[in-house]
Design goal:
about 475 residues; alpha/beta; Rossmann fold; 2 domains; 6-stranded mixed β-sheet; 3-stranded antiparallel β-sheet; about 10% strand
């Protein structure tokens, strides 16, 4: 998924979303494993899939039983694409042909169900092909039973061989003739296997005419499986359809389900985030513990979801279509390369700058240069802001450095400890966490960074010996 490390993907919260998807078939699970962003060249396809999810959500009461019936059938659909793709040039064995027949029987059952769903929910771009002719080719007696065996009359030669074999098997019953016909029976059995191989070759050449339709249906089953899973996730999570035909990012009351679930387990509530982002750099400031990283993760998560054709966790969201995503922080990066966290940040920064020269992306820097000294850190941070203001991407940077946000196009602050209720010292860390306001407010670019660190020290009853030495 893009080039984000597994640690970053987990931090952002994508894994939490994926783990809650209920795909039921190997085809759907494989499609999910290989999921990728649509990109700016495929906006029409992205909108179509989002429209299809909306259609299933809007018609949930009508289609829920239909979806249940479809998922029950497709749960048995195996990925036979390798066998199907071999048909033009290879003779398949009996097991492979048996699996193809099972798949075509499944398609026969599924076809009217998908047609009904398409008509009811007005789904677009769902291409499920009628494979009746392919099924009739391999279902010799038209019994629609999932067994595979060449009938005696498949070829004239096969009929003659099996007639001879049947005659010899009758003679084998006679003890006096058993030894005499045993070798002849063995020879005829070999001839049968050879002729069955020839029959398989003939059948494969006939089935090759249906390769495209079978591959289309395999792909469609994976698509339908994942589409249904996305619609269930959106319906259960009260997620909404993002608008993806925009150049600005406008989000109202964004939620991070992963963080929200963690907070709920502690009896706390996630503070929704609202923000507007244009091309160029937006800086978010706030004290440590203020929730800046959570804000970044929430923005990145929902933008990635929108670009993967998922619904988003917000009241509303206008989201550009990006060609890449970058999340730069010194958390979870590879220290084993022998570089400091700062050194890893610089290497990553170079890679991002190169990529942003010719692609439109969302770039996030979480506390860039915080591990170096404050003076040089401020200089570097300001230089990065000025650079990314000139690049064709949306960039969000968090910091607690002073005097750097004035270079950005926009400046937000985390509200932090701006509205504490009455309290008695000392308070617990849980009290502070519960009353930290993670909401964002737009401020002037020269607005100083909030200074909550000393407040937190007092609240936690830091030793008076240390407090007495504060200037």
């Amino acid at each position: 998924m893009n080039n984000l490390s597994s640690d970053k993907i987990k931090t952002i919260g994508i894994n939490y979303i994926i783990d809650n998807l209920s795909t039921v078939s190997p085809l759907g699970k494989e499609r999910l494993r290989n999921i990728s962003y649509y990109g700016r060249s495929n906006i029409e396809l992205l909108n179509r899939e989002l429209d299809n999810i909306q259609a299933l959500v809007d018609n949930h009461a009508i289609v829920s039983n239909k979806l249940l019936n479809i998922t029950t059938v497709i749960a048995n659909a195996k990925n036979i694409s390798k066998s199907v793709s071999k048909l033009p040039h290879h003779t398949l064995d009996e097991i492979e042909l048996f699996e193809i027949k099972k798949f075509l029987l499944l398609c026969d059952t599924l076809s009217p169900m998908i047609a009904d769903l398409i008509a009811t929910a007005h789904l677009q771009g769902v291409d499920f092909v009628d494979t009746t002719d392919a099924l009739n080719t391999i279902d010799f007696d038209k019994q629609r039973i999932s067994t595979f065996y060449f009938p005696n009359n498949y070829t004239e030669q096969l009929r003659k061989i099996r007639d001879s074999k049947h005659r010899l098997e009758k003679q084998l019953v006679d003890i006096t003739m058993r030894e005499q016909v045993k070798k002849e029976h063995l020879d005829i059995a070999v001839q049968e296997r050879l002729e069955e191989a020839n029959c398989r070759k003939i059948l494969c050449s006939q089935l090759a005419n249906f390769i495209d339709s079978m591959l289309t249906n395999l792909d469609c089953i994976g698509y339908i499986d994942l589409l249904i899973a996305k619609s269930y996730l959106a319906y259960k999570g009260n997620a909404v359809r993002p608008s993806v035909n925009t150049e600005r990012l406008v989000a109202v009351n964004l939620i991070n389900p992963n963080v929200a679930h963690h907070l709920e387990s502690k009896g706390r509530v996630f503070t929704p985030i609202s923000i507007e982002l244009d091309k160029g750099v937006t800086v978010i400031t706030g004290a440590n513990m203020g929730g800046k990283s959570v804000a970044l993760q929430t923005i990145m998560l929902n933008c990635m979801l929108a670009n993967l054709a998922f619904f988003v966790y917000a009241d509303s969201m206008d989201c550009p279509v990006f060609n890449f995503f970058e999340y730069v922080s010194n958390e979870g990066d590879d220290a084993e390369q022998g570089l400091s966290a700062f050194g890893m940040e610089i290497i990553k920064l170079n890679q991002v700058v190169d990529r942003a020269q010719n692609q439109y992306g969302l770039v996030i820097f979480d506390e860039f240069a915080k591990t170096t000294n404050a003076g040089e850190g401020q200089q570097l941070f300001s230089a990065v802001v000025k650079t990314f203001n000139q690049l064709d991407c949306i960039t969000v940077m968090t910091t607690h450095f002073d005097q750097v946000s004035s270079y950005a196009n926009a400046h937000y602050q985390v509200k932090g400890l701006s509205a504490l209720p009455p309290y008695t010292l000392p308070v617990s860390a849980d009290f502070i966490s519960a009353h930290l306001d993670y909401g964002l407010i737009k401020v002037d670019g020269n607005q100083p960074v909030p200074k909550d660190a000393l407040t937190i020290c007092h609240l936690l009853n830091l030793s008076p010996y240390i407090l007495s030495h504060l200037n």
